[in-house]
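User: Sequence in, structure out. Go.
Assistant: Echoing your sequence, followed by the structure tokens.
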Amino acid sequence: MLRTLLMAALVSSFLVDLPAQACEGGLEINQACAPGGCFPGDDPLFPVTLTRPGRYCLTGNLESRQPIAIVIATGLATLDLGGFVVTCSGAPLAGSTCVGVDDDGPGTSREGNVVRDGTVEFAGDVGVLLADRSRVERMRVRFSLGNGIEVGEGSAVLDSEVHRNFAIGISAAEGSLIRGNVVSLNSSIGIITGPGATVSGNASSNNGGTGISSRGSVVSNNSSFSNSGVGILMTEGLVRANAVHDNDEEGVVALDANVHENALTGNGEAGLRCTGVLASTNFRNNVIENNGDTVTFSPTTFCRDTGENTCNAATDCL
């Protein structure tokens, strides 16, 4: 519990409201300029459209009566929200994004964007959507009717708070880095990634589905607790040094994965459910205590206790 509180405090320290600053070398966005277009290439009215690479800065809170507030129709743009809030108060619209890319664009034309340092709320579908090799950092994203944050391949979501969205909290494609986020009270999965991702140092709690779900990735040093589904679901990857507790279903469900050095406690079903199809699920040096069951497996031949586990004070977990 102390570890979880410290993690939340650390992430929150990145999210204090920032003072308004001049947009040195960049273009300003605010409520006053939106009706007439904020800069060349941006048509009047919402959404504000970023059409060229470079730096853009929000200089005040921005409210769009449309489901879309800011469209990034380019690559290599940095959108600095400056501690301000972007609100999309229009009617719900499936496929819309409050802040982010309009589509994948031709080739790599939407890659390499950055959205940072502010709040996005009340999106009619997705809160923040970016394409491949992009970055979301030090953001609050909340009350989206769809997913909170979505990013493409090789992207990063860092040091952000993602709360009370009506679908998935963070969804990231393969090869992404998800680090230092607090993800809670979302209606579906807290964090889900494609293969080859690194998911580290996050707190995922009280979500309506699985806390963290991935495939072929490294999931380490996270807290996943009090979720309505499984704490961590992993296929063909490594689950290491996580605190997984008080989830309604299993603590960890592992398919052809390695599960090492985790604390799996107080979960409603098994602390660990392991199985295999192509290879074994190996578990080592875990503490598995006070769960609805200790370790369940199907079949036994694909679940290997490789030593130094403690299951309700016993060293034999199978």
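User: And one key feature?
Assistant: Residues 2-12 form the longest helix (11 residues).
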